[in-house]
Amino acid sequence: MKKFKDIIRITLLYARRVPRIIGTHAFLVFLLLIILSLLISGTIFFFTAFSLRNVEPDIQASQTAFKKEIFLGILDIWEKRSVMLQEADTKIYEDIFDVR
Q1: What is the number of domains present in the chain?
Q2: Radius of gyration of the chain from Cα atoms?
Q3: Are the C-beta atoms of residues 43 and 36 closer than 8 Å to each other?
Q4: Rounded distance between C-alpha atoms, residue 65 and residue 69, angstroms
Q5: Fewer Cβ within 10 Å of end Cβ, the chain: N or C?
Q6: The pLDDT of residue 73
Q7: Is residue 15 part of a domain?
Q8: Alpha-carbon gap, residue 52 to 46, rounded angstroms
Q9: Among residues 64, 66, 70, 89, which one has the least CA distance to residue 78?
Q10: Cα–Cα distances in Å, from 1 out to 8, 71, 85?
Q11: Could you give the C-alpha distances from 11 to 14, 17, 65, in angstroms and in order?
C-alpha cells in the first residue's frame, strides 16, 4: 500500500512539472507534435490504402429513364424565368445622382 502511495505521489510531482517543461521547450515540443501527427496520419492513410486495394467495387447497372413530362415542365419554368429576366432588363431607373 505504501508503494502505491509513493507511485501516486511521484506521478503527481512529475505531472506538476510537465507544463513548465513544455513551456520552456515549446519549439521542440511543437516539432515533436508535428512529427507525431504526420506519423499517425501516414499510418492511417497507408492502412486504408492497402485495405482498399484488395476490394473489388460492386458495380450495379441501373436503368435511367428519360421522363419527357418532367423535362418539359422544367423547360417551361426556365422559359418563364428567362422572360422575367428580359423584362427586368428593359426597365429604366431614375438616376438619383443626376443634378438638374
Answers
A1: 1
A2: 35
A3: no
A4: 12
A5: C
A6: 95
A7: yes
A8: 10
A9: 70
A10: 11, 81, 85
A11: 5, 10, 69
